[in-house]
Amino acid sequence: MAGYKSASFDPDEAAAASDLASAASDAASKASVALSAFGVQTITPADSVAINWSLGHIASLLLDRATTTISGFSGAVDGDRLILRVRQDGTGSRALVMPASVRYGTDITTLALPTGAGVTSYIGFIYHSADAKYDVVSVSRGFAP
In angstroms, how far apart are the furthest CA atoms of the chain? Predict the structure, then answer.
């Protein structure tokens, strides 16, 4: 038959194809885990809370008591961009205390959140591993319900 080429089985090519498929599956699995870090984690309100950034690069916290203290941050790697979404409860006038690992610059020198009932604010950080600091790089305040 003209143009017909017989197929042959090459065990080395089959093994290479199997290894390639396995590597692709492993890479997809790792990518899925890495992407989960960009999800939103909800922090259970308490007098003192800790935030593990490896569970999500956005952390949502409801302020439902007079003062909430963030006891510490963990789980970030150098250069991670992180967002803390803070919402006042229906009463408002709640305070937030940041951990010692938070560092302010000359543009944003302190954190002053609005106290209105139901108001949401966002605080952006970049983790600087050499200094073990979470640098505050943005604050956006006052999103009404």
Answer: 86
**Distance between terminal CA atoms of the chain?**
75
28-56: pLDDT as tens digits: 444 444 545 679 999 999 999 999 999 99
Are 104 and 71 in contact by the 8 Å Cβ rule? The answer is: no
Measured CA to CA, the distance from residue 18 to residue 131 in angstroms comes to: 44
Cα–Cα distance, 91 to 114 (Å, whole number): 12
Domain extents in the chain: 38-143
Give, in order, the Cα–Cα distances in Å from 113 to each of 14, 95, 119: 61, 8, 9
114 C-beta neighbours (distance < 10 Å), count: 15
Cβ contact 93:118 at 8 Å: no
| Partners of residue 121 on adjacent β-strands | 86
pLDDT in tens, 103-113: 999 999 999 99
Per-residue burial over 56-66, b = 16 or more CB atoms within 10 Å of its CB, e = otherwise: bbbbebbbeee
Q: How far apart are CA 76 and CA 130, in angstroms?
A: 12
- Nearest CA to 135 among 56, 63, 82? 82
